[in-house]
Specification:
Layout lengths: L16 H12 L44 H26 L4 H16 L12 H12 L9 H24 L5 H13 L14 H16 L5 H20 L1 H4 L9 H8 L2
Length: about 270
Amino acid sequence: MATFSFTTCTAVDNTSPRCTSSRLAQTLVRPSYVSTWREPPRASSSFKRLPRPDHLYVDPAGKCLFDKKYVYYGQRVNKTAAATSLKKKKAQKKVEKRLPVPDHIKGILVDDWENVTRNNQLVPLPHPHPVDQIINDYLEYERPSRDPESPHVDILEETMAGLKEYFEKSLSRILLYRFERPQYHEIRKEWEKTGEDGPKSVCDTYGAEHLCRLIVSLPELVAQTTMDQQSVSRLREEISKFTVWLGKNATKYFVSEYETPAQEYIDRARNI
């Protein structure tokens, strides 16, 4: 049996048997640093696992298919937010279609906007025909045409009461232009000074101009509620009748001239 030694050989005797056996021995010795075999770590996430053999990347029509588990969380949030926003916009568009505003009311509002924002003019307050009077006059006009035993009278009164409540809560928030806000604060101070017979609320002070601003804002306000289709249809019908009646009586309920405030008021309104 052949034995292997670790004897070094000289450069001259390269072909000697002893030198050959020494080189062979060096190649047969295993290094001590060779690591042993280890099992690879198991995949802890679905992102590390291969898809199933029957997984489809495209449908029969050639459209790409994506697994929801491979969609990043940020993409899921953005997709959900976009879908929610689109759903709200569609619902708002439906409400806008169901609450049409007559063209003559839109024309009045355009003139109203120009008078306040461009000409620096104001609606005279207290209004000669406030919202309370307008609604009461309309109820007196419309009630005789309704059957007292039918629910239409109740629907009419509930709609007008709701319109009045909306007006009281939304006037100072969304119905005033910036140029009108000092006037509103002055009116509130006057309410504290007047007696019981004087105007004490916005429905006793403001008139058809600001009421029409509410009417064109109703679609957005109603879109934020949980009204069903039947309620929206009733609201549309009642508001449409009311705007038609108000347009026919525009010369009575809308002011013919706006007032121009003092320069001190104009400077104060611009600094708001």
